Amino acid sequence: MSNKLISSIYEITEKFEDPVSKKPLDQKNSDIDIICKEGHANITININSNDIAKYETLSDKIKISLQQIRELLSVNIVFTSEKNSESSNNEKSRFNINANQIIAIASGKGGVGKSTFAVNIAVALSKIGKRVGILDADIYGPSVPRMMNISEKPKVNENKKLIPPENYGIKCMSIGFLISEDTPTIWRGPMIMKALEQMYNGVEWGPLDYLIIDLPPGTGDAQITLAQSSKLSGSIIISTPQDIALIDARKAINMFRKVNVPILGIIENMSYFMCSNCNERHEIFASGGAKKEADKFKTNFLGELPIDKNLRINSDEGRPICIFEKDSNISKEYLKIAEKINQL
After folding, report:
1. What is the pTM of this model?
2. How far, in Å, CA of 229 to CA of 207, rounded?
3. Is 301 in the same domain as 225?
């Protein structure tokens, strides 16, 4: 079924040509790759990221044409920039930060506590004496301004670079500083890439020990561009324990492996809940699933974090729990994880 569907897709894509090389997007073209599973297709087209504007309408045109294939339930088209690996000097000048370690916090799906982890691990790393910045690359749902209690807009210095707002000793940059909290970000591929480049390379970060990048959930354009262009030291995958979340966590792991970004470890978030009345542990979303995935992928299991009411309250109020409730159990867990990351 998959091979037949792939052939049907190629029959459509071969009618289109690469706008730069002018080669048809057929099975002989090594720059296009199609993977199908259970009626869902992922199409990867390898381009030079400097030419991305020339591909702006290609994805939509292909998707419209593919609608005639009745067996095709969904299609995802991703442009990657592996062609740029031969010109790494250009990439270094495009995405370049003076940070010893650049770590992406990622998840295969939303709602697993990725942004909460990103903010609190940044604070925990700062608490153990590290110079830390956090880049909120979650374009569609920026959470860092609220959780770091920052409302000021970044200023521009004499070099025409943005000065990142700072709170609790953490330098922060987010698209949320540039738009109002209730304004949706209705952007498409090239605009997202430009915004990420501006927030990454157009900011006066200064020297950092760690830059923590809060990636948007999923495995789309933003994740792949940052993974390939920002010289990531590694990624940390956040998942809840249940099977439905772990399925998407595996996709995130495989995406990073495909672009040669090391997986530093996996965090099991919302692993359990300690009842304040009976003081018993309740595993609402099951437990241990993330550790099994870490063993399966031969990567580090960095720890399990509970559902914690005070963490939610403090996050909503912009009060990192490692600062405002430093003696709490969950604060101690974050500090343990920070120490583990620092030793990797």
Report:
1. 0.71
2. 19
3. yes
